[in-house]
Amino acid sequence: MLNSENEQAIEICEGPGDLRALCLIGGIATYLLVIYSLATMVQMVVLGGQPATAAQAFDLLQHHRAIGLLRLDLPTIAVLPLYYLTFLGLYAALRRSNRALALLSTLLAFAGLTLVLSTPTALSLIPLSDKFAAATSDAVRSQLLAVGEAIMAADIWHSTAAILGGVLLQCGAVLICVVMLRGSVFGKVTAWLGIVMHALDGAHIVGGQIMPVSGIILMAIAGPLYPIWLFLVGRRLLQLGAQKI
What we know:
By secondary structure, the protein is mainly alpha-helical.
């Protein structure tokens, strides 16, 4: 039975250029995402979430810059590109299950990630915070606060690009989990967990714009599922990538 599974894994990741390397890289990237997701949960409990106003953000960046950058989601922007590698690994693993759907899901995820990464980040607030601290008139401070509020309204959680990008990413993730469900490369638990989790996260992105409380509830359910799903995906990708021919 073990030999049969090994032969299946080798066949899955064989192909032009030997796609086992993509499975291996994708598995490593996914394990890093597990660490990030757990660290984010701890940060939310210990440090809190995003500052509510530009004035609070400026104050944090002036007096506790490292904490300010954490609460303004700079780690999220730094880590999100790892999803490109995760989806490349998933495509390499699932392309023989359903090449068209695997490719479509990867393209949707890539488009979504790119849109989210195009939005302003915490780094955009640092020079404004420094200017605010050095300002000598209320008029200048008011202008800087207005610019800061505009940047925060266009960040990875609130802008049109971020919302559309998030929806595309979650759609791609749900679709890749459907491919998992139809094939035999990943377990059914991994597939169903991913479908439920990403569907809830997608509903959180859309529903949160209409009813903020519903968005909070949906994310509170979906969030803790991420480390579990990412661990299962990362482990399987590493198994596929480590097979010897």
